[in-house]
């Protein structure tokens, strides 16, 4: 079984690349989807946020107020550190479980689709790391359009992560997703054929 760590900055097109890899037959372990599942009311991440911040981080329907949590953790280094040291082990347990299931089921290619792959040391569990990259300006625009954030909020979220330049330096493969989706798809197809067939 080959494990590819797939990462990139926020709004860089990592999910699009992941979808192409799934079409090629890879099994995707999506760190964000795991985090969302564990963030549902009464689950482990939800409980950790409520225990730490209190009810102020809950919406009327008892779901987490992600925007408020983002404003807190992306502007306070201490809170960001708390979040990472608390959430990563909870997510890690589920990822390890899914990797084990893939091994038992004879899956050939597993993609660890994890935004904070390097920050959480998941690169050590990967045979290769592929980084999805775009320009900083395009990244800011995509975040603003996708999440309805101000430019300052978008920059704050980008700067809270390891820089794309640093991720690209460490990567085995860098995928530029600045162009049209069909161009990115062709690039992923070429990389798949060269590295995984």
Task: Report what the structure shows.
It contains nine helices and five strands. It is of the alpha/beta class. The protein has one domain: Rossmann fold. A five-stranded parallel beta sheet has the order 2-3-1-4-5, sandwiched between helices. The model has no long low-confidence stretch (mean pLDDT 94). Belongs to the CoaE family.
Indicate the topology.
Elements: E1 2-8, H1 14-23, E2 27-30, H2 31-38, H3 44-53, H4 66-73, H5 77-104, E3 109-113, E4 128-133, H6 136-147, H7 151-159, H8 164-170, E5 173-176, H9 181-195
Parallel strand pairs: 1-3, 1-4, 2-3, 4-5
Helix pairs in contact: 1-9, 2-5, 3-5, 6-7
What labels describe this entry?
Depp_CoAkinase, 9 helices, 197 residues, alpha/beta, ATP-binding, five-stranded parallel β-sheet, nucleotide-binding, Rossmann fold, 5 strands
- List the helices and strands in order: EHEHHHHEEHHHEH
Rounded to the nearest angstrom, the radius of gyration is: 17 Å
- The domain count comes to 1
Major sheet: arrangement of strands: 2-3-1-4-5
Unreliable segments (pLDDT under 50, ≥5 consecutive)? none
Summarize the model shown.
By secondary structure, the chain is α/β, with parallel strands linked by helices. It is built from nine helices and five strands; from the N terminus they run βαβααααββαααβα.
């Amino acid at each position: 079984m080959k494990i590819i760590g797939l990462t990139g900055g926020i709004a860089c097109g990592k999910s699009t690349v992941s979808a192409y890899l799934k079409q090629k037959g890879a099994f995707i372990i999506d760190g964000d989807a795991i985090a969302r599942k564990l963030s549902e009311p009464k689950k482990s991440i939800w409980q950790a946020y409520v225990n730490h911040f209190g009810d102020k981080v809950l919406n009327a329907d008892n779901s987490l107020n992600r925007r408020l949590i983002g404003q807190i953790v992306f502007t306070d280094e201490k809170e960001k550190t708390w979040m990472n040291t608390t959430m990563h082990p909870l997510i890690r347990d589920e990822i390890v479980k899914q990797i084990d299931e893939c091994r038992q089921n004879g899956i050939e290619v597993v993609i660890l689709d994890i935004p904070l792959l390097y920050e959480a040391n998941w690169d050590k569990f990967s045979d290769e790391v592929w980084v999805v990259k775009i320009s900083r300006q395009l990244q800011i625009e995509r975040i603003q359009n996708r999440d309805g954030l101000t430019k300052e909020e978008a920059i704050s979220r980008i700067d809270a992560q390891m820089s794309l330049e640093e991720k690209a330096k460490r990567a085995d493969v860098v995928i530029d997703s600045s162009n049209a989706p069909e161009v990115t798809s062709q690039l992923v197809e070429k990389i798949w054929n060269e590295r995984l067939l």
